[in-house]
Design brief:
With about 130 residues, the chain is mostly helical. The chain has a domain of about 70 residues. It contains four helices and no strands. The relative contact order is 0.04. The mean pLDDT is about 80.
Length: about 130
Amino acid sequence: MSQGLPAAGSVLQRSVAAPGNQPQPQVEGESPEDDDRKVRRREKNRVAAQRSRKKQTQKADKLHEEYESLEQENTMLRREIGKLTEELKHLTEALKEHEKMCPLLLCPMNFVPVPPRPDPVAGCLPR
């Protein structure tokens, strides 16, 4: 094996011998200007692809941030629902206790029938 040359079959040898790394033979009718045009077009395409990937990554990052923000808001709202549900239960119980001894409800002059109330908690809970 000569010094400075990669071993046959090595990664470096294969990459040097890869089809895209070989100078293309001049096709009849193709000028150096055509080669320059191809190089410029490839470079322009490479830059456009990088820009597209960056834009796609930024969009994904923005969506992830929005997702996390909505998750936090959802958690906060669920806690608030829990607190309000407990407050509703407490106030409903307080009202029931008050109705047992309310002088306005116990007065014989108030013969207005009071229809039974539906359970207020059941109507407010999410399904």
